[in-house]
Design a protein that fits this description.
Helix content is 75%, strand content 3%. It has 505 residues and is mostly helical. It has a two-stranded antiparallel ribbon. The protein is globular and about 65 Å long.
């Protein structure tokens, strides 16, 4: 146990907990950007088409399935490290190795192998997130979760400044391979910090007592069911006359959706049948809560419009609008991220006074309005509102060798989008933590965040096809429309959200 030393209204244990949350937010955000917008920038400058870049967004699939292996992280503890910390160290070291491997590959010359490496990074990143989300929920009291959630997002956004913003500037100066090698080193350092400095989880929070052999058998049965369902649907579609290698992007997307629709239910059924006890009991525990399914619907819908608008932001700005990597890096990933941090901090304090319902509704409305900014940018065009010249600079960790034009409209759009997105995410994080049972924290949070990731993962290939078919202005109007159901769901769920907050004062 940590010794409590009062420092004003705060004690040392609280300061250490919040510092750990900030650090882990950073560790979570770093690899996510490297299989998201940073990777999209690499693919864009390598000359891949928008639709292909959109489909490569599917490497993020592990984020939507992570609840399937999260029970193993609830049930098992690695020796010597204590609850949660062992899994953190292992996943962070694995991420360091995989990012180093990615750095050695060329997406243009070895696209399939590059995709496999990115998928592996996404898998370990999702696994790290399972542990981080559970750890955060385990060590924070209910009344600390608003501020804790804001600090987690603050750390996450700081990571995106490095891996998303500064990385684009580094890449323009020294290439993407160098950038990914550097990110591998940062993840290795994170593993050392996690091992040495993170506060322990309370000894009272124990894993479920169950037969470990039965747990592993259930997990393997689930994997087997998933594989059988995937390939069975694949060959059934071929027998029905559909071509998986068709150049038609809609048909390719249909193949993926159909295979997933067969694989997931079969994997789940086999896991239940064999007896994957932690998965069974954790899911039963969640769905025993009032309005459990309705909350899942809300979680999917709330960030859907934001997911569409943000899915192809980097290719839109570089390829669609003609901005340079340096300008995108400076405006979107550096200035924008700092603005997001401001929004997150403000949201953390606002939520001390607002109900969860009001926070979700107001911040969600701001997110919807921010999508109109991208539509305006697509309609008006580059430099429509003028620009200013940012001189070349070198501040040690970041250097721009040549002066860059900074578009005023781009600055305004990104500023509003980031501040509203930061606020919405802060409220959303509190919602997820409030729905978790601490006996099954990893599985519950993984289930909830997997549903939250559905929009971010699966809209990417759809966005690529829609933007090419409709054009960018119509695409962003569509993203605004897709934000409306989430606001409606918040309004309908008002009694449930108020009741949830009363249950977690």
């Amino acid at each position: 146990m940590l010794t409590t030393i009062k420092l004003g209204q705060w004690d040392l244990s609280a300061i250490l907990r919040f510092t750990a949350i900030l650090f882990l937010g950073f560790a979570s955000g770093l690899p996510l950007a490297l299989t998201g917008q940073a990777m999209q920038a690499w693919l864009t400058v390598d000359g891949l088409d928008i639709a292909t870049i959109g489909f490569l967004g599917l490497v993020g699939i592990p984020y939507s399935f992570k609840f399937l292996w999260a029970p193993l992280m609830d049930r098992f503890e690695l020796p010597l490290f204590g609850r949660r910390k062992g899994w953190l160290v292992v996943t962070q070291l694995g991420l360091a190795l995989l990012l180093w491997w990615m750095a050695a590959l060329s997406p243009k010359d070895n696209l399939n192998l590059f995709a496999v490496a990115a998928l592996a990074v996404a898998f370990l990143s999702a696994s790290q997130d399972i542990v981080i989300d559970a750890y955060r929920t385990d060590i924070l009291a209910p009344n600390e979760r608003g501020l804790g959630g804001s600090l987690a997002i603050l750390g996450y956004r700081l990571a995106t400044i490095i891996s998303g913003g500064v990385a684009l500037i580094w890449a323009q100066n020294s290439g993407w391979s160098h950038v990914y090698t550097l990110m591998a080193g940062i993840m290795a350092a994170a593993a050392v910090i996690s091992f040495l400095l993170l506060p322990p989880v309370s000894a009272t929070l124990k894993p479920l007592d169950s037969d470990p052999k039965q747990e592993l058998a259930g997990f393997m049965a689930m994997l087997l069911g998933f594989v059988i369902g995937w390939f069975a649907m694949h060959y059934l579609l071929i027998l029905l006359g559909f071509d998986p290698d068709s150049p038609n992007k809609w048909l390719q997307l249909g193949f993926i959706v159909a295979q997933l629709s067969a694989a997931l239910p079969l994997g789940y059924k086999l896991a239940r049948w064999v007896g994957f006890e932690t998965l069974n009991r954790s899911l039963d525990s969640y769905f025993a809560q009032p309005s459990a399914v309705a909350f899942l619907v809300l979680i999917v819908l709330y960030k859907l419009g934001d997911a569409f608008a943000g899915s192809l932001t980097t290719p839109f700005l570089i390829k669609g609008m003609g901005f340079s990597q340096a300008e995108v890096g400076i405006v979107i990933k550096v200035i924008g991220a700092w603005i997001t941090i401001f929004g997150v901090i403000i949201a953390g304090f606002i939520m001390l006074r607002l109900s969860l319902f009001k926070a979700l509704l107001i911040f969600g409305l701001l997110q919807l309005i921010s999508n109109l900014g991208f539509w305006l940018l697509a309609v008006e065009g580059k430099n429509a509102w003028g620009s200013f010249l940012l001189p070349a600079f070198d501040i040690g960790i970041m250097a721009v060798k040549e002066a860059s034009q900074i578009d005023y409209l781009l600055m305004l759009v990104i500023a509003f989008e980031n501040i509203s997105g930061g606020m919405g995410t802060a409220a959303f994080t509190v919602l997820l933590m409030s729905l978790c049972n601490q006996r099954f924290t990893a599985t519950h949070y993984a289930l909830l965040s997997a549903f939250a990731a559905l929009g971010r993962i699966y809209v990417s290939p759809l966005s690529g096809v829609l933007s090419e078919s409709w054009g960018w202005p119509n695409f962003f109007i569509f993203s605004v429309i897709m934000a409306i159901p989430g606001l409606f769901a918040v309004w309908v769920m008002r009694p449930n959200l108020l009741g949830l907050q009363k249950a977690n004062p």
